[in-house]
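LAB NOTEBOOK - FOLDING QUEUE
OPERATOR: T.R.
BATCH SIZE: 2
PURPOSE: Compare the predicted structure-token outputs for two unrelated chains run back to back under identical settings.
PRIORITY: normal
REVIEWER: second-year student, initials M.K.

ITEM 1
FIELD SEQUENCE / FIELD STRUCTURE:
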Amino acid sequence: MSEKKESVLAGFKAFLMRGNVVDLAVAVVIGAAFTNIVNSVVKGIISPLVGAIGTKSLDGYSSCLKGPCGVDAKGEAIGVNILWGSVLNAALTFLITAAVVYFLMVLPMAKYLARMEQRRKVREGVQETVVVTELEVLKEIRDELVTQRRSGESGIPGSRH
């Protein structure tokens, strides 16, 4: 029984020490902090700008589907009220988050990776050109040596026939 516990714990430890699990944990923590920043921007800047047309908060926008709508003396909702302002607020939060992630993370990383790939291709192209040039030179030397051997002339000092 203790051997099984040790193997389960060893397996769990191996699982936790995998690189992708640690990366995922870091991404979740950073994502949570990033979400707080975006929510603050939406609530503090975007919502008041949009709300300048009407109410101060997008959450205040609603439509009454079945009236009368409102809140009774006990604080309970009366009627069927559609809170489309909250949906708009969530949609704006999503769009802003997606835009910030794309323009500040995805796009720069894609450009960086494209530059790295282009540099790699240029390096490989230069190496390939050098290799092809050396190969051509070696072929020419070989052909010249074959020609010299056939004609009986050896241009190499100290060589015998």
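ITEM 2
FIELD SEQUENCE / FIELD STRUCTURE:
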Amino acid sequence: MTPTATRTSATALRLGVAVVAAAAVNTVIALTASSLDDGGIGMGLNAASFLPATVLGLLLGTAGWILIARRAPKALRVVVPAVLVLTWVPDLLLLNAGATAANVVGLMLMHLVVTTAVVLALRPTLREPAAVPAAPGQVAR
């Protein structure tokens, strides 16, 4: 097996674990938010809504990560939090549609879980920075 194939299969395995972990954590969040969502609309808190959205979010996050990491990997430090905050805007708008704070906070936490899963799964794919030579007279450690 070539090193590239090994890295690709390791990345696929990490993404698979990320999907399962994110789905499990989002299930717990949805159940908790649903139990606290007294009289709200419960938007996005049923499994038929959040499980496909979790997988789709991981796929879109992976695609975005790959595109940015190839061109400007340092930009991920700004882009990832910015995209996360942007995903919270529709959640906050649900407050006007009759959603409770528990519903909205639950959805926001679910977006955080998906973002965290993508970052943890793909962070090892970033290239290591080139070794910086030691200054004259210093010993590299």
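REVIEWER COMMENT (ITEM 2): The helical segments are 3-36, 47-71, 76-93, 101-122.
FOLLOW-UP: none requested
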